[in-house]
Amino acid sequence: MSAGGYSYATLLSAPHAESPARAVAPFPKQLSNCLVYGPAGSGLSSLAAMFALNMVASPSSAADQPGAAGVAPAAGSPRDVVVLTMRTHMEARPPALAPGMDHTHPWFKSIKIRYLASYVELKQYAGCMHLLPAAPAAVVVDGLLSFFRPDMDKKSKERELAKTLAMLADGVGSARVASGCACPLLVTDEAPAAEAEPTSKHFMYVLQRWLPLVLEVKGSAKTGLTLSASPTCPAFASMQPQLQMAQVHFSMLASLAVTGVEYASNT
Questions:
Q1: Which of 73, 160, 229, 242 is the most buried (most CB within 10 A)?
Q2: Of 214, 1, 3, which is closest to residue 12 (Cα–Cα)?
Q3: Which of 213, 185, 266, 251 is closest to 21 using CA atoms?
Q4: Global confidence as pTM
Q5: Measured between alpha carbons, how far is 85 from 31 in angstroms, rounded to an integer?
Q6: Integer Cα distance of 117 and 115 in angstroms
Q7: What is the three-state SS of the chain?
Q8: Of 10, 5, 12, which is closest to residue 248 (Cα–Cα)?
Q9: How many CA atoms lie within 13 A of 163 on its CB side?
Q10: How far is CA 75 from the centre of its chain?
Q11: Distances, alpha carbon 92 to alpha carbons 58, 89, 210, 212, 263, in Å
Q12: What is the pLDDT of residues 187-221, one digit of tens each?
């Protein structure tokens, strides 16, 4: 993983472990805001957990610069990664880790999970992010649309979604300025059912306004899963050909494991 950046291996492989995903080039550092989406049961929370773990383990997360309030942990210690989610979402989708990793590892102490009850609390947290004692190495929002009530009307949800994403982008932006690090923002969400396709396309437009890099999970846990860049996302045209064509295959049957990489046109 390049300093301050991330790659497919950041989402799919244990820190410092051999993985076919490491053959794929990292994403450009300017693509710091990313959406990962896919069908239910496609391991999105597992990818979010592995991303958080890798960001803690990355040398670029070392807190050797002042935080937002001018206070930082001892030089060389890892910065925290903040994970924002709903308790019901996490309990329904407990993340699986890569082989060789378990929840007793010291790195997990630097992953700070904040359970929030609604998009209102998510906006409030984003608005106060500049008050954190030290800027985080990354911010993860797992299950974005789960923060919104299912009975919200389309216009209200769209309006509040845009406000929430704007506040998240601004909050993480302030952390980047304070720390001098990339501080990626990773957001996960499940793709709606086929019958909601027109609505999902409309919400995707709002999501991509603030999350220009979109990685899509396809397949199923039984038949195998594939992670690749969405050819319709705003960042796709600016990516090098290897990243445009990379399709990283992984399995969730026993644990999170990369099974191979191939290069094929997504267009």
A1: 229
A2: 1
A3: 251
A4: 0.89
A5: 22
A6: 7
A7: CCCCCCCHHHHHCCCCCCCHHHHCCCCCCCCCEEEEEECCCCCHHHHHHHHHHHHHHCHHHECCCCCCCCCCCCCCCECCEEEEECHHHHHHCCCCCCCCCCCCCHHHHHEEEEECCCHHHHHHHHHCHHHCCCCCCEEEEECHHHHCCCCCCHHHHHHHHHHHHHHHHHHHHHHHHHHCCCCCEEEEEECCCHHHHHHHHHHHHHHHHHCCEEEEEEEECCCEEEEEECCCCCCHHHCCHHHHHEEEEEECCCCCEEEEEEECCCC
A8: 12
A9: 15
A10: 26
A11: 29, 5, 27, 28, 34
A12: 999 886 554 454 567 788 899 999 999 999 999 98
Taken in order 236, 249, 79, 210, the sign of the CA dihedral is: positive
Q: Which two tokens stand for residue 267?
A: 């267009």
- Tokens 């644990």 — which residue? 255
Residue of 195, 109, 129, 123 whose CA lies nearest to 162: 123
- Give CA–CA dist 203/262, Å, rounded: 30
- The model's pLDDT over 81-120, given as tens digits with 9 standing for 90+, comes to 999 999 999 998 888 877 777 777 788 899 999 999 999 9
Return the pLDDT at 217: 96
CB 84 within 8 A of CB 142: yes
57-93 burial code (b ≥16 CB/10 A, e <16): bbebbbbeeebbeeebbeeeebbbbbbbbbeebbeeb
